[in-house]
Amino acid sequence: MSEKAKTTPDLTLRGLRVFVALAEAGSVIGAASRIGGSPSGVSQHITALETAVGARLFDRKAKPVTLTPAGQVLRRHAHKLLAALSEAQADLAEISLASLPQLNLAIIDDLDASLTPVLVSSLQSRLSRCFVHAFSGRSDHVIDRLLAREADIGVSAMLPPDSSAFRVLPILKEPFVLVVGKGAIQGDVRRALDSLPYVQYSESLPIGQRIARHLARVRLNPDRRFALEATRSVLAMVAQTKGWAITTPLNLMDAERFLPDLEVMPLPFTGDIRRVHLIARVDELGRLPEDLARDCRALIRSRLVPRFDALAPALAGAIEVAAD
Q: Which domain of life is it from (predicted)?
């Protein structure tokens, strides 16, 4: 073997991933963000790749950077190679999952009663020898368990601080809605809120913090008399005081026994949207997270959406399920 052959860099999978990221992002900084690396690292990988193939792959003077003819050829092959690798990894993961002794779930509490039985049943049908442990709690606690590896899969309305290490699969999005005591609103809704008791979620909760920020954005500063931690307590207090609160459709269904004493309506000011995701670590568990996300969406379409539409006909269609 010649000395030149010994020192010529090889094509690497990491180099191909960097190449594809740069081709899609159109900038070194954008590619670095996609792969969770540094701009200098991206440049080094591309230089090594160009040396390995013996041709320029990008016109870096163009803004955004564009592929050369050689780069266009490599892109076609790179996508095929990476797709084949991903399929092989998924197949290998399925083999290892068959002997998985335990799987830990963490699910936001307002979906616990509806989603947990479906996910556990789905896991048992796929992994008959696996012991499934399910935790229910706040979105920030779900994320904490994922980060601490105390959960393998989470369903949360929050994202990890560094999402590049996780697969984030959308489940649904829902608007924040107004809940008032039955008969409490007469005339203009926004004006009526000024004279009614405001029942707030505690700002120690993610939902409480988010609602507080949104009220500040729309310049609404209601008199704060009390703060409660559970949706059931919030809705019970709204019914008792003929006051008002802000919540979401999923939270409403978690405490629907109070709805006969309440009215649900759109916010009388600019709204906000909450998104719920299924989250799992990258390159772990094969196709299982995607399968479970589909199961979640199917359940929500078939059961939760019709149920909410029946409870609050004026807001029918408010819960939007992500496409499979």
A: Bacteria
Mean pLDDT (the chain) is: 87
pLDDT reported for residue 211:
95
Residues of the chain with pLDDT under 70: 1-9, 87-99
Half-sphere exposure of 87 (CA within 13 A, CB side): 6
d(CA 318, CA 234): 21
Instruction: Indicate the domain borders of the chain.
Output: 3-95, 101-173+274-299, 177-271
Dist. CA 37–CA 278, nearest whole Å: 25
- Residues whose CB falls within 8 Å of the CB of residue 293, separated by 6 or more in sequence, listed in order: 169, 170, 171, 278
Q: What is the DSSP letter of 259?
A: G
Do 3-95 and 177-271 fold alike per CATH?
Answer: no
Q: Determine the angle formed by the axes of helices 13-25 and 69-97, rounding to 10 degrees.
A: 120
Residues 56, 66: Cα–Cα separation, whole Å: 11
